[in-house]
């Protein structure tokens, strides 16, 4: 049975946390699912969210979905410790370890230090962390080469822009965020080279590795005001990489009469966002976090400890772009064929987008 609990730091010891695993196609170097008939050493698994909470329509939510699948498919009791403030983070990881479960999943850069500390102190516990690389003999880093999928999204954005201006903003200047922005910029550049156009990108400078950041992942009004500024500069496609803050991009566009289309990240926004946003959703840059988490739990079922990273790519299905849904007609058949060709070139290694998580 899986449980979701929001816990203050001092009460964290009372709660269990959740975890999940993905199918083989979504990860590199992963073994197959555990033999259902084999003796199971892993009875429970814990997950600790970052301060964005569990229902963030982003990586906490999809990580938890993977944990729930581990519960349902593997019989591993999965539970979640929900961090509501920064002060909850380290105590919640300590609480997860203190439950005695053999698997602890943490989500995001805010939990790097606590994960490192607890992993070093508990070598017999399998740790995993989403969207960060943490060294340790018992820590599996679950990361995604989102630059590959963002490249396709950038190419698409440039192809549908009527103003010749598109924009992006992030939550904070962190590699899991800027990786999207790098790929997006590269896709726009590829379109310009192929078509002889000059579509401009606001909000990110690849050479400087700096751009526009809200400094927050929860305050929707920040995304709304930033998008209003971009729309005022002529942008008609926006890529927010800022968790719930990104919903403000839709709000700003709706207020402006639908002047800008929006690209979502992490999961298919058509399925997770309010229905009123659907007419503005061009596509989503997908990370198969659910399957990757499930894979990590599956591999830990027999009690073995691993430090092998799980890396999602276009080739293994760990990243991609979502269907265009209601905006299918906005993307030409020519562009769709070009996207298929570009996807194949990336998989073949003919196009390489710089990525700190590598190929």
What does this protein look like?
The chain starts with a strand and ends in an 11-residue tail after the last helix. The radius of gyration is 20 Å and the shape is globular. A seven-stranded parallel sheet has the order 1-3-2-4-5-6-14, sandwiched between helices. The protein has helices at 59-74, 89-98, 112-121, 146-160, 175-195, 220-232, 247-255, 269-272, 289-300, 333-348; strands spanning 3-6, 44-48, 77-82, 103-107, 126-130, 139-144, 165-170, 200-202, 204-205, 210-211, 237-241, 261-266, 281-287, 310-312, 319-321. Residues 1-39 have low confidence and may be disordered. The protein contains ten helices and 15 strands. With 359 residues, it is an alpha/beta fold. It has two domains: 3-144, Rossmann fold (3-Layer(aba) Sandwich), CATH 3.40.50.2300; 146-287 and 319-348, Rossmann fold, CATH 3.40.50.2300. 35% of the residues lie in helices and 19% in strands.
